[in-house]
Amino acid sequence: xxxVTQPDIHITVxxxxxxxxxxxxxxxxxxxxxxxxxxxxQGLQLLLKYFSGDTLVQGIKGFEAEFKRSxxxxxxxxxxVHWSDAAEYFCAVGVPFSGNTPLVFGKxxxxxxxA
Amino acid sequence: xxxxxxxxxxxxxxxxxxxxxxxxQNLNHDAMYWYRQDPGQGLRLIYxxxxxxxxxxxxxxxxxxxxxxKKESFPLTVTSAQKNPTAFYLCASSIDGKTGNTIxxxxxxxxxVV
Lengths: 115, 114
What we know:
The complex is a heterodimer of chains A (115) and B (114).
Chain A: E1 3-5, E2 10-14, E3 19-21, E4 24-26, E5 32-38, E6 44-50, E7 56-58, E8 64-68, E9 73-78, E10 87-94, E11 104-105, E12 109-114
Chain B: E1 4-7, E2 10-13, E3 19-25, E4 31-38, E5 42-51, E6 54-57, E7 64-66, E8 76-78, E9 87-94, E10 104-105, E11 109-113
Parallel strand pairs in B: 2-11
Antiparallel strand pairs in B: 1-3, 3-8, 4-5, 4-9, 5-6, 7-8, 9-10, 9-11
């Protein structure tokens, strides 16, 4: 079965600094990959997703993610973090052509932004 | 506005009581999901439904029950058999349940059992 690991439980960055959140997956082929963001006490919102093709994916709010097959990774990046980016970020993986198998979510990375 | 509405936002119950969390969507989505979120645990799937009158157990279904009598509604009952029911519960939906489709989430419901 597929699985996803987010190695960093909590990351703190300064406003204006660059950000990279790590995501590693376990699956025999190329999975579907997603990043979601959750503000405190709220639901999740999709930032971006990767199915195939160009390995660099652009999302909303200035985020991007890069799929690296050799490293089984799908890291999320942002060149300049804003205070409003403080939230929890979840990576998720899905199995292509599996019918309707629900996504598997990582445990999340909490991002704090300091002035 | 189209979306997913969960109610109530906050709910307190005494131990041993069953409680039902409401989830309604007006997105015309076929698939609906219930997740439980605990600090440091991420999202864990409780139940999901791909079509009316059908649903499947997720990873942590014990102590929970659901129904899907209408397309737009997917209520979750937390029974007294659930040993640690205090958590944040998220309802979600997608257009047809296929793995690649975007999942849309409600705002969540906080359940505290004392």
